Amino acid sequence: MSQAAENYLRHAGVNNPRSELFPRARQRLHVPELSLPQTTDATEHLRAWIEECDAVLVAIAARKEATAQFDEWYADKYLRRQPPGILESGILAPAKRK
Q1: Which domain holds residue 37?
Q2: Which of 2, 47, 74, 88 has its CA 20 to 30 A from that of 24?
């Protein structure tokens, strides 16, 4: 086979557009260009973490304060009105008549 024929066959597609038995040429797939977000500095990440930790500390302090207020209310409204012996898990036995 001549050199020109070999070059032609190398560049020819491996499909036959006139036959259903061979695969058809496929359209080119257009993929959008990937764009990665710009990286941020470590100081910005650190500042965000510091703000988040400060918010968590404020939430913890508020929770402790609310818990202390509830404990105070519970002791004042409920525990103070209980008869003696209930809170210490003592047995309340009526005195026997003599």
Answers
A1: 3-81
A2: 2
The amino acid sitting at 10 is: R
Q: How many whole angstroms separate alpha carbon 69 and alpha carbon 61?
A: 12
CA pair distance 33, 13, nearest whole angstrom? 28
Find the angle CA(80)-CA(68)-CA(87) to the nearest 5 degrees: 30
Distances (CA, A) of 1 to 7, 9, 12, 21: 10, 11, 16, 27
Would 93 be classed as within a structural domain? no
Instruction: Evaluate whether 87 touches 81 at the Cβ level (below 8 Å).
Output: no
The rounded distance, in Å, linking the Cα atoms of 18 and 16 is 5
